[in-house]
Amino acid sequence: MRRISVGIVDHHPITLEAIVGVIGHNTNLEVLGTGAAVSDVLQIATRCRPDVLIIEVGMPGNAFEAITNVIGSMPTVKVVAFTFAAGVATAIRALDAGAVGFVLKAAQSSELIEAIEAVARGENYITRSFASQVIAGLRDETLRRKAAAIINLSIREEQIVRLLVRGSTNKEIAARLKLSDKTVKHYMTILMQKMNARNRLEVVVAAQKMQASNFGGHALN
């Protein structure tokens, strides 16, 4: 069976040496190249063409942009983000950039091997102790993006959403805005389509996330 080729970019010499040592003890893996700076990322990807590229995302410079550049020019390379930063935002940013693996440096070395093998098989991998937090964060981010995509709400639609966020029922909204129940239901259908929401609750959640920054500030009648 062909060994999985690996590239590593980490600006901590001790960490880099440790990763090379860990991979070297695994007969299924081989290290093709290493680097210590963001500028080395694309170079190693194009020169060595590894199956998996481990990138420390906490390096000086924009490691996330480097990940995107690698995926854009070498789509067959699977990127594993490697970091001390146990923050959901960091994980989401790395995954958005194109990484398919996210491993914390505090994890066991066996997890790094597991991640390399998983992404080489075409799977995604997130450090086990951190996975549930990242998944929840991704779900929240998805809702935020749905909300941010709403750019053409009419004044009436904004009024309805504001009342929804306050917990008003369709009947209460109809009475407040002097509309028929049928008209309110029609607006709800439009709002669900615009927000890519499956139900009333998702409309409310998405609206809550965009209300402060995206609404135009139209007053209720």
TrEMBL record:
PROSITE patterns: HTH_LUXR_2, RESPONSE_REGULATORY. GO terms for molecular function: DNA binding. Gene3D superfamilies: 3.40.50.2300. It comes from the Bacteria. GO terms for biological process: phosphorelay signal transduction system; regulation of DNA-templated transcription. InterPro entries: CheY-like_superfamily, EvgA-like, NreC/VraR/RcsB-like_REC, Sig_transdc_resp-reg_C-effctor, Sig_transdc_resp-reg_receiver, Tscrpt_reg_LuxR_C. This is Response regulator transcription factor.
